[in-house]
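Lab meeting notes turned into a lecture example. A postdoc, R.K., suggested we walk through two folding results consecutively so the class can see how the record format repeats. The first protein's sequence and C-alpha cells come next.
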Amino acid sequence: MRLLVIEDNRNLVANLFDYFEARGHTLDVAPDGITGLHLAGTQSYDAILLDWMLPRMEGPEVLRKLREDFRSEVPVIMLTARDELPDKIIGFRAGADDYLTKPFALPELEVRLDAVLARTRGRNPRKVLEVHDLQLDMATLEARRAGQVLHLYPACRKLLEVLMRASPAAVPRDQLEYALWGDEPPDGDMLRSHIYELRRAVDGPFEQKLLHTLPRVGYRLSAPAAGAP
C-alpha cells in the first residue's frame, strides 16, 4: 500500500513508518492539515491515516474538503484521542471510513486498514477517469483521447485529474491553483499558461472541444452537448 499519514506527533509517525515500511508499504507524511490536504488532493494513495488535532487545519475539515472539493473516495481512518460519541459522529459525517482512538496497537490499525480497503473496493472506485472520449488511467497516469495518447507535463496532468474528477461541474481558479501549489501560488498567472498547454493537448487535434473557460469563475471539462458539432 501507499499510505499518507497526516499527523504532527513525531513519535507516532516514526512508529507508523517502522511498522508499515517493514511490511513493504510506502508512506508519506504531512505534519499539518494544509499540507495533508494538498498531498491527499494531488497524489494517489491507497489509504490515509488522519489525526484530528492538527496545526493549520483540523482533521475533520481536511476530510470534508477532500471529499467535497476534490471528490476523493480514498479510504480514511481517523486517529485521535477524542473518544466521545459526538466526536465520532463528527468524524464519520465528515467522511471517515473508520475511527481509531489513541493509544492503539499497530496490529489493530493494520487489521482495520485491511478491512477498510476490502469494503471500499466494493464501491468500485474510479481507477480510470473518463469524460466523453477522454480517459486518464490513474494507475499508469496515461491520458488518451479517442485512443490517441496525450503527452502531458506533470502540472497539466494534475489539472486534468482535478477537472475530470469534478466534471461536469466547474472548478474555480483558486482550487486549481491549490491543487498545483498548495497555499503558496507563484507570482503571475502561471495557471493560465498551464491551462493553455492542457487545452492544446486535450482539444487541439480534435473537432469537439471539452475544456471550457468560465470567465471570472474557472474552468470546466465536459462532454459536448447533444447535437453539438
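The second example is placed directly after the first for contrast:
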Amino acid sequence: MEFQDDAFVLWARAHGDTGAVVDLLTEGHGRVAAYVAGGASRRMKPFLQPGARVAAEFRARTAEQLGAARLEPVGEGPAALFDDPLALTGLAAAAAVAQGALPEREPHPGAFYGFEALMAALAIPEVWPAVFVRFESGLLEALGFGLDLSRCGATGVTDDLAWVSPRTGRAVSREAGAPYADRLLHLPPFLLGTQAGLGEGDVGAGLALTGHFLERNVFHVLNRPLPPARVWMIDKLGEAGRL
C-alpha cells in the first residue's frame, strides 16, 4: 500500500526515542495512522500539531500493518490561532471527533473538506462555532447517518421546520412538533441554509443536535463517550457567551 495525499494532522504521540505515531485525515484515503521517523525532533514537532496541514507520502507492506509516512508542512497551520485560546479548543475538539468517529483507511473526502472549511473558519470568531456544527453534521452524513432536514417527517411540508426527531433524525415542522416539543431536538435555522442568521442559543442547539446523533450512532457503537475535548469546547463556549 503506497500513496501520496494531502492531509491534516489529527493527533500525534512520541514513539521510541526519536519517532512519532501520527493520525492523519487524508483527502483521498480517509483516516490513516502512520509512524513518522524523526517525529519527536524539534524540527518536526511544530507541524505534528492537530490541525497542521501536510503533504504525506505513505507506505505500508500490508493493509493491516502500521505504515510509515514522510510529511512536509503546507502553510502555517494552527500557528495562526495561538493567540485565540477559544479557537484552539474548537480545533482540538474537531480533531478529536474526527479521529474518534472515522474508521481507519476508509475514504471520506467529505470529512476532509469539512475539516478544511472549519480550519479556515477558525480565524473568524463570530463564525466558527456554527461551522463546527456544520462540520459535525457533514461527518454524520459521511458515515451514513445524515440528518434529513429537507421536509417535515410527519407532514411533508418544507416550511417552518423547527425540530428534529431524536429517533429518526428527520426534521419536524413547528406546528406538527408543538405537542411533542419536550421530546424533540431544536433545529437551528442556520442548518437549513446559508442565508439564515445566527440567533441566541442556535450554536448550543446545533451542538446538542449533532452531539446526540454522534453519541448514539457512532461513539456508543464503539463503546466510547464523546471526546472530552468536545465537552471542554462546549464549556468554554458557554463561559464566553457564545452558545
